[in-house]
Design a protein that fits this description.
single chain; alpha/beta; Calcium-transporting ATPase, cytoplasmic domain N; Calcium-transporting ATPase, transmembrane domain; 3 domains; eight-stranded mixed sheet; 14% strand; elongated; binds adenosine-5'-triphosphate; binds calcium ion; calcium; metal ion binding; transmembrane
Length: 563
Amino acid sequence: MGKSTILGTPTETALLEFGLDLEGVIGSTHHRDGTKLKVEPFNSVKKKMSVLVSLHDGVTRAFCKGASEIILQMCDKILESDGNAVPLSEKQTKTILDAINIFASDALRTLCLAYKDMDEAPEGDEIFTDGYTLIAVFGIKDPVRPGVREAVQICTEAGVKVRMVTGDNINTAKAIAKECGILTEGGLAIEGSEFRSRDLEEMNELIPKLQVMARSLPLDKHTLVTNLRRMGEVVAVTGDGTNDAPALHEADIGLAMGIAGTEFYKQLASYDFSSVSFETVKYTSILSNHLSNFSALMSLSWVGCKKENADVIVLDDNFTTIINVARWGRAVYINIQKFVQFQLTVNIVALIINFVSSCITGDAPLTAVQLLWVNMIMDTLGALALATEPPNDEMMKRPPTGRGEAFITKTMWRNIIGQSIYQLVVLGVLMFDGKNLLDLSGSNASIILNTFIFNTFVFCQLFNEINSREMEKINIFRGIFSSWIFSAVLISTVAFQIIIVEFLGAFASTVPLSWQLWLLSILIGSVSLIIAILLKCMPVESRNLSTPNQTGYHLIPSGPEEV
Ligand SMILES: Nc1ncnc2c1ncn2[C@@H]1O[C@H](COP(=O)(O)OP(=O)(O)OP(=O)(O)O)[C@@H](O)[C@H]1O
Ligand SMILES: [Ca+2]
């Protein structure tokens, strides 16, 4: 027989696989034919699941498995290795609790398995919650994937604070959080029950320090997200969707991962669940042949989460992918800002030049066709050039954009206004004294001057397009050749400009220019590169990270060294 594939949550599959392995060791035993009477599926609030089976000798047996402390509390007996149930002494309870803690501190998810025999099937819906006999304690290892630690580090550098909210035991949660760098020195790790009991004021104080919340209920995740948002934070939640749906829904960005994500994926292509890397590594010695009934306990409890709750579905179930989401999110946002900055400069200058000139001389230097042309190249090609820049690592080293932050930042206004003033001064001088300065005379003087103004205006925009690649940094050329689109756009803009000025005079109201004037246009345009450097030396906004906002909540530090 080939190896069968087990479907279900990683916890379930790990246990079932272990049970099946054990069956191979102990031999398939008699209890298999018991009939299932009732199943209480796993639920994140109770953190346990139960099943009621009727055995052939008339006995009804309840099996229960779930969070170790919770199941242990329901037990008053323990199954010894010889198969006899003996009362659970205080000393034994302590030993078991110690074992649980040792497992948990080793980053293992701990579960207990217990059973209870009854003569009759109980009435009502509830399966008993006391008088159980403890069968086993399990420690399940869910190895932290390679790269998670690095991903958390990148998040921290990017000003994204990673918190862990889990249904697991606090010690398990702490151990895992330490392993992936979520729990740091001075950070707070608490249990959901404690978190729940706090009032609003205490939460305001507690939440900024909170790094790990363990044994949480679905509602706790939701409460945390609501409070973080109230504090003005932008919250992204990742979850496997089944019990995280409320929090995913409440978050600004809901990232469905794990089963919810892969379940969706499974619909597109068949997905091999056996690749899920949970493995059972440790268990205590209190095992008996009762375990053969164990498979009845397994339920395919995973429910496809509502896809509407998530904004992003992480198909590869990998935390590192979230970095990519953030990188591209930032890249797109910044690219749009760059384009808007560039576009606003073009429009402000064109509008003012034409308006002022019309008011004073009754004549606009830039004709309708020229403006249309400017708009076409600047809109289409500019968007293409600036919006297709790929993300870079720099982007993940700046703090995130806050919820209420203006789209056009002060930095952008500085660049827009500075460049516009330069262009307006130059073009204004040319407009009013250009003939004199350029020594133009004769009947053609006016049209030559206007063509020259148009050409200079276009070159100013062209160089400003290069400036717009970087809003804050002086070096605007970094990686300019890695994006071939940008170079292609610049070259084709120049080519179009030559064609329109030199050959399409009748259409665009231009005349061919001498090479001296071409050179002068380019020179004047290129001065905007120097203007940009001067502007960037003018500080406008200090991204003061420690400014408390209205709730007294401090923004997170930007680098790990400040944590
Ligand atoms: N199938 C199951 N049957 C019984 N108990 C379970 C099962 N799965 C998890 N548990 C228990 O419940 C706890 C997890 O609770 P919960 O599902 O609320 O948290 P979670 O952080 O969403 O977990 P997960 O990583 O499974 O998504 C585990 O620590 C374990 O003790
Ligand atoms: Ca879950």
